[in-house]
C-alpha cells in the first residue's frame, strides 16, 4: 500500500509506515500529514495488525515539515493558516486515541515536526547516530503543534529547553530526557524493535487497548483526579474475560512447575 510520500508494509501482526520523501530528507508536507493520520486510523481498525511502527526511508527519519510548502504559506492570511493547521493538529492528537501501540524507529535526524512525532509515539527506539531538535525559534517561529507532545514526554524543563533554544541533541541526551526508550547500534535496532513487537503479540489486544487508554487518561490529570479515574476504570479490567483467561494461565503454569 502507498499514499503520497508514505509506504506501508505489513508483516504478520506488524504494520510499518515509512516516511518516503528521500529527496527532501523525508520531509512531511501537509498532505502527507493528512495521509499519515488516515493511514494510522485505517491500520488501527485492522484486526490482524497488533503494532504500528513509524520510520523513515534511508538514513533519515524526517527533517520535519516541508520547507518549500512552509515558505509558500508565510504570507497566507489567518483563515488559510487556521485551515492548513488542521492536519497537524490531528496528527499529534491521533496517536493517543489509537488502540494499538505505535513505535517510532528512528535512524538519523528527527527534526522539528518529526521530533514531535517521535514524542507523540508510544515508544521510541533510535540508533546511536540519531539527532533530535526543534529549531523553529531560529527563524522566528515556535514549535506550537509539537509542544503538547514534548511537554507530555519530557516535562516543562526539557521541553522549554528544546523549544526555546532550538538546539540539537544527540541520541544519549534524548534518552536521558525521556524522548526515546532505547538507544541501539544500527545493527541492533531492528532486533530490539522486533522484540517489542513480539511482546505485544503475546498480550491480549483488549488489555493493551484498555491499558493505553487508561494510561493516557490518567497521565493527563493531577493526582486526585487520576485516582478517581483509576477507580472508575478498574471494573473494565476486573470484569474482563482477558483477566479470567490470564488467571487460568497463571495457575496452570504454577501447577506444571509444582
From TrEMBL:
Signal peptide: none annotated. Gene3D superfamilies: 2-enoyl-CoA Hydratase, Chain A, domain 1. The keyword Cell cycle does not apply. Keywords: Isomerase. Transmembrane segments: none annotated. InterPro entries: ClpP/crotonase-like_dom_sf, Enoyl-CoA_hydra/iso, Enoyl-CoA_Hydratase/Isomerase. The keyword Isomerase applies. One of its GO terms (molecular function) is isomerase activity. Belongs to the enoyl-CoA hydratase/isomerase family. This is Enoyl-CoA hydratase/isomerase family protein. It comes from Pseudomonas putida (Arthrobacter siderocapsulatus).
